[in-house]
Design brief:
This protein is mostly helical and about 140 residues long. It has 8 helices and 3 strands. A hairpin with a 7-residue loop joins strand 2 and strand 3 (about 80-85). Helix 7 (about 110-120) packs across helix 8 (about 120-135).
Length: about 140
């Protein structure tokens, strides 16, 4: 969404216009965990996104500079998606959502480990995680 299409100058509103739908943060989550994914990888996600919604979200996220397409090394018919720096910069948001969810919901033990480590040293955890995400 460009500046002329904003509903307001509120930073929360502007951000939600880019990634605030039901699926975009889940796609970003998958890319943060796997670093790069194919269209089929997203379809295998436990939430069960439909193909038309997935295609629409991937296109919007690419247009907004959150993700980019790469050539697949094994197949000319496939592409890989990965986070851009703009997408990687959502890591603190994703971690804080996990902290909030841990407080109010049962979360899986792997996520609990991540949340515990993050809460122990937020700055150090973010620095190490961002370094790892940028390696791709």
């Amino acid at each position: 969404m460009n500046n002329n299409q904003r509903r307001s100058d509120c930073p929360i509103s502007c951000s939600l216009d880019v990634w605030g739908d039901k699926w975009s943060l889940l796609i970003i989550r998958d890319l943060m965990f796997a670093k790069q994914c194919t269209y089929g990888d997203f379809l295998k996600s436990g939430e069960g996104i439909s193909t038309n919604i997935l295609a629409s979200r991937l296109q919007a996220m690419e247009e907004n500079g959150l993700i980019e397409k790469l050539s697949h090394p094994d197949s000319k018919a496939k592409v890989l998606y990965r986070l851009t720096q703009k997408g990687i910069d959502l890591l603190p948001v994703m971690l804080e959502i996990s902290v909030w969810a841990e407080k109010y919901y049962d979360i899986d033990k792997d996520r609990k480990v991540v949340v515990k480590e993050y809460k122990k040293d937020k700055e150090g955890f973010l620095k190490a995680s961002l370094k790892e995400l940028k390696k791709v």
